[in-house]
Design a protein that fits this description.
The chain is about 80% helix and about 0% strand. The two termini are about 20 Å apart.
């Protein structure tokens, strides 16, 4: 499948990466949020989501251009936000705008939990940036 995509031009591969990455971030964000809500709420799952998004963008893009890394970071942030909202408030939290604000508000607290919370998210974003292009 990826051989056919690699025969396309860089612009078409970027457009395909945009579409596939968007839907993948939505799917992985919701699934990881449900997993964290039902079973174990640990942020390592977000790093795994970032790795999946990054490798998908890397396989589709097959390029060294920075724009592939930037869309991987954008889609990782979308997946993280969706996962956090579902993990804290359940699936119904997706439809409440206040739940998104409360997720971001948690990062402002000055305790060790919010520092660790933020560190896992920064690690996930870093992983998606590094592994999303061929270097």
């Amino acid at each position: 499948m990826f051989e056919k995509i690699h025969s396309l031009g860089i612009t078409k591969r970027f457009n395909i990466a945009l579409i596939v990455g968007f839907f993948l971030s939505l799917i992985l964000g919701i699934l990881s949020g449900l997993f964290r809500y039902r079973f174990i709420n640990h942020a390592v799952i977000l790093v795994l989501v970032a790795i999946l998004i990054a490798f998908t963008i890397q396989k589709i893009g097959n390029s060294v251009q920075q724009r592939f890394s930037l869309i991987a970071v954008l889609y990782t942030v979308i997946a993280i936000v969706l996962s956090d909202v579902i993990a804290q408030y359940g699936a119904i939290g997706l439809f409440d705008i206040d739940s998104y604000f409360l997720i971001f508000k948690f990062a402002i607290y000055e305790d060790i939990n919010s520092v660790i919370w933020l560190a896992y998210r920064v690690l996930a974003i870093y992983v998606s940036y590094v592994y999303s292009r061929i270097i």
